[in-house]
C-alpha cells in the first residue's frame, strides 16, 4: 500500500520476552500482528530437505515422507506432479525408499503432521521464485497498471524451469532492485538443486531465515517508519540480514536503550500478548467478541454486552456489527487464525443493513496481507470466512515457545 493511501505509519518491534523472541507490528499505537518463537531455533517451515518416502497411500493420493528419522510429513500426490528426485528406484512412479527434495510448506498443527512439497519456493522482499510452476503471477493487491509495468520487467526472465510471483512490496521497487533480487533467488535455487543429489538422506539443504527476520521481508515497507530492538544480539542479526538482503531498509533499524523502561513495557507488549490469547475481546462500544478455536474451525460470536447506545434497536445492532467486523479482521491477523472461520454477528432484519455489513467486512479483510475471503452468509445468518494458513496460530506459537523454555 502506498504511503499516501496509508497515513498511519508502522513500527516493527523485535524483543526477547520470557525466553522467547517476540515480533510485533504496530500501527497507530496498536499491535496488528504478533510472531512468537523460542530463542532456541527449532523451526521447520520453509526448510528444504532430502527426504525419503516411507509410505505411499494410493487411496488418499498421498505419501508420507520422512525429513528426519521418525519425522514423517504429508505429501500430496495430486499437488506434486514433478518430484525432484535425488535417488530413484526402478519404479516409474513415486515409491517407498525414493529420495527427493521437499520443502516444508505447512507446520504441524495439533494432531496433523507437517506438510511438504516438491514445489520449492525461494522468497525475497519483492519476488518469489517457484519450481514446479512456471507462470508469472502477481499479488492481488497490485493495481492493473502496476502489474503491467512490473510484467514488462519480469517477462524476459520467464523460464521453463521456474516461475516468478511478484509481491506487493515490488510496487515501490525499481527495475534494478528487482533484477538484483531475482539473480540472488536464482543463485539459491541453482545451489540447492545442483548440490542436493550429492547430499545424504535427511540433509538440510536450505534453511529459511528465523521468523523475526522473515517479518522484515514480509512487512509492507511503504508505511514502515522504523525497526526497533533493545537486544544487542538481535540488533546484530537484523543488521546483518538487512545489509545482505534489504540494504535500502537499513536506515530504519534503531537500537532502543533505556534501563528504566524496557521496550516491551514502553509498548505494553505483555499486555497486548495476553489480550491476543484471551477468548473475550471488548469493543469500545461496550459490546464484545468471543473467539473460540476448535480442531475444525474458529467460531466468533458478537455480543451486545454493555452497549446501550442508540434509540432504535436495529441501528444499534448495525453499529455494533460494523465495529465488530473491523476488530474481527484485526484479530484474525493478530492471532494468525486460519482455515474456516464462522462469525455469528448480531441478527439484523434489514437486508440493506446486512449488505452494508458484508461490504465493510470484506473491505477490512482485504487489508490483511494473508489472503482472506468472505465466502457467504448462511440461511441462519452466519458469515463464513476462510484465511490462508501460513504459520501456526499465535496460541500455538506461544505455547510452543513457552514450553521450549521450561
TrEMBL record:
One Pfam family, short name: RNase_E_G
Top-level taxon: Bacteria
Span of domain RNA-binding protein AU-1/Ribonuclease E/G: 122-390
Necessary cofactors: Mg(2+)
Claim: tRNA processing is one of the keywords in the record: no
GO biological process, one term: rRNA processing
One GO cellular component, as annotated: cytoplasm
Ranges in a coiled coil: none
GO molecular function: hydrolase activity; metal ion binding; RNA binding; RNA nuclease activity
InterPro entries the UniProt entry points to: NA-bd_OB-fold (IPR012340), RNA-bd_AU-1/RNase_E/G (IPR019307), RNase_E/G (IPR004659)
Name of the protein this chain belongs to: Ribonuclease G
Native organism: Murimonas intestini
Lineage start: Bacteria, Bacillati, Bacillota, Clostridia, Lachnospirales
